[in-house]
């Protein structure tokens, strides 16, 4: 790096393309956020700053119930997925001799390999059968489906952390006559929890974002926030949709920031 | 070696311990496996079965074996003389899906590779910030991104306003509800899937190789072509697969930005379970999509393996 006149890493044009790409990525989002603070009702015509549309959105009962359902499904599904994913990560990363480990990992990642539309249709059929047999039509379907496709996302950070972890610590605990449970609770878990938390948050965002599967398996009258937004998009949007979108954008940005910070703390070298 | 190990060292107690250990592992794996088996793998089996049944009058199926769904994926019966011909409507949707997915893969590659390279060669602080900026839209709700794009490309949106004011066009361009809108939307949404694996590959480049090439009087273009690209190729291939696969199955983007007319394969499938009331055809189309995607994955695996060995 002593020679400053010639940067061997530079590729001409790459910076320009990157700058343009960042602009294209962010301009639409910036416009959307800006117009959520517009006083006027006409989108595209700026009439001064106002929180009017946030008020409209907060008072809208459809949005209230859709938000509640979305959060409920996301919290339960993310909890279920994180617990399952942590257990399976412990089973497949610790020690040798688990010959089925590769198969188990492949099965856990299966939801990632199937296009969402196929999963949605397949679940539509499965749930139609269950509905016919039991008559149940609650939020259980949404929670079950979301838990399944959230597992691989919760699994990723937990498995990565377990693989990086120094197994000597666990071996030392075992040498000191700690049983498996005590070793897990006092040694593994304290080191693992940031990854578990990251897994939970990833699963939460994934569940909160899902449009396609929810749209096809929800029963009549159920709306999650994304399926509500999809319905609004088809009908022609009003500015309160901008306000809801801005809040959702803020929530997912906050969560991603948190995951970034947690990961950075754990790996100062990277 | 493992055999010797087992014979010489494994006492009964150790074997019992090992069995116990294996049982614990299966026990720990079972909740995740059960949920995925019931709510993700079993439905795939059901969809395969349904593709060989007859459609019910009001949706759902009649339980009798039939190949009609599979025949009508590719062929349709002439209304007048009953002869089978190619299903033009289906084939044109297949073609549009594959064409738009390939185009999306190509554009994300053209934009994403230089972008990833640029980001990965910055100083640590800026690099993390830029990486974060790529990640944020990726975790933002898909509908919000689609809505934002819709607002930019519609008739009185930003692009048309700018073009009109500059006098480049006399009338606003119709971009929404076209194939262009779908392609643009997919490029926007899937770009991070190309950037992230390429970024990881660029990070692994040993720049002493680049330096050596320059010392040997290689031109910049030669360095890119003969040194940098071969190193990042696995990342580019992985990124292409990550972009192509969800593009082929895309539904929401095509539905919102493409309007009702420009169907992609995903929309055609959804249609069969909705107004079409032909669940077996929808199931057969789903299986076709899965087969297409698995073939692409296998080709990619083949391709990368050949590259690594050769």
Give a count of the beta strands of chain A, DSSP E runs of length 2 or more: 0
Tally of alpha and pi helices of chain A: 12
Annotated CATH homologous superfamily of the largest domain in chain A: MetI-like
CATH domain fold name of the largest domain in chain B: MetI-like fold
Q: What strand order characterises the main sheet of chain B?
A: 1-2
Query: How far apart lie the N and C ends of chain A?
Result: 21 Å
CATH topology of the largest domain in chain A: MetI-like fold
End-to-end Cα distance of chain B: 30 Å
Oligomer classification: heterodimer
Task: Report the CATH C-level class of the largest domain in chain A.
Answer: Mainly Alpha
Instruction: Note the overall shape of chain B.
Output: globular
- Rg of chain B (C-alpha, Å): 26 Å
Instruction: Work out the number of β strands of chain B.
Output: 4
Uncertain segments of chain A of ≥5 residues (pLDDT<50)? none
Q: SSE string of chain A, helix = H, strand = E? A: HHHHHHHHHHHH
- Determine the fraction of residues in helical runs of chain B and give it as a percent range: over 70%
């Amino acid at each position: 790096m002593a020679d400053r006149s010639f940067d061997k890493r530079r590729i001409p044009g790459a910076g320009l393309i990157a700058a343009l790409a960042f602009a294209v990525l962010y301009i639409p989002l910036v416009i959307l956020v800006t117009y959520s603070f517009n006083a006027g009702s006409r989108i595209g015509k700026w009439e001064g700053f106002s929180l009017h549309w946030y008020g409209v959105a907060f008072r809208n009962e459809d949005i209230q119930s859709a938000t509640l359902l979305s959060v409920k499904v996301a919290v339960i599904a993310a909890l279920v997925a994180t617990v399952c994913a942590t257990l399976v990560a412990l089973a497949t990363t610790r020690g040798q001799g688990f010959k089925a480990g590769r198969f188990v990992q492949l099965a856990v990642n299966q939801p990632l390999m199937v296009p969402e539309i196929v999963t949605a249709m397949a679940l539509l059929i499965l749930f139609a059968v269950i509905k016919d047999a039991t008559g149940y039509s609650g939020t259980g379907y949404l929670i079950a489906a979301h838990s399944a496709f959230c597992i691989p996302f919760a699994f990723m950070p937990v498995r990565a952390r377990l693989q990086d972890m120094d197994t000597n610590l666990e071996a030392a605990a075992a040498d000191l006559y700690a049983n498996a449970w005590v070793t897990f609770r006092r040694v593994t878990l304290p080191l693992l929890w940031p990854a578990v938390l990251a897994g939970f948050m990833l699963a939460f965002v994934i569940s909160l974002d899902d449009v396609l599967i929810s749209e096809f398996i929800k029963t009549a009258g159920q709306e999650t926030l994304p399926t509500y937004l999809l319905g609004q998009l088809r009908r022609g949007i009003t500015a309160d949709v901008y306000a809801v979108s801005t809040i959702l954008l803020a929530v997912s940005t906050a969560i991603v920031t948190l995951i970034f910070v947690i990961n950075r703390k754990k790996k100062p070298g990277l | 070696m493992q055999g010797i190990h087992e014979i010489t060292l494994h006492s009964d107690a150790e074997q019992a311990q090992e069995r116990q250990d294996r049982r614990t592992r299966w026990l720990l794996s079972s909740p995740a496996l059960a949920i995925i088996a019931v709510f993700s793998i079993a439905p795939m089996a059901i969809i395969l079965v349904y593709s060989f049944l007859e459609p019910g009058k009001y949706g759902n199926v009649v339980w009798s074996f039939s190949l009609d769904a599979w025949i009508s994926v590719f062929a349709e019966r002439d209304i007048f003389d009953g002869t089978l011909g190619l299903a033009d409507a289906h084939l044109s949707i297949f073609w549009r899906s594959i064409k738009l997915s390939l185009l999306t893969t190509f554009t994300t590659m053209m934009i994403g590779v230089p972008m990833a390279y640029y980001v990965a060669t910055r100083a640590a602080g800026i690099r993390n910030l830029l990486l974060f900026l790529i990640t944020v839209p990726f975790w933002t709700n898909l509908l919000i991104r689609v809505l934002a794009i819709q607002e930019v490309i519609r008739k009185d949106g930003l692009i048309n306003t700018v073009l009109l004011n500059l006098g480049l066009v006399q009338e606003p361009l119709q971009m929404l509800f076209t194939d262009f809108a779908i392609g643009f939307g997919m490029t926007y949404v899937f770009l991070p899937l190309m950037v992230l694996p390429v970024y990881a590959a660029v990070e692994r480049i040993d720049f002493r190789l680049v330096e050596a090439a320059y010392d040997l009087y290689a031109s910049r273009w030669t360095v890119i072509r003969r040194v940098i690209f071969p190193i990042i190729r696995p990342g580019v291939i992985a990124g292409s697969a990550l972009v192509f696969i969800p593009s082929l199955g895309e539904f929401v983007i095509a539905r919102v930005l493409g309007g009702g007319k420009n169907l992609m394969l995903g929309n055609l499938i959804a249609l069969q379970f909705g107004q079409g009331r032909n669940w077996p055809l929808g199931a057969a189309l789903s299986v076709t999509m899965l087969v297409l995607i698995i073939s692409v994955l296998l080709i990619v695996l083949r391709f990368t393996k050949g590259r690594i060995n050769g």
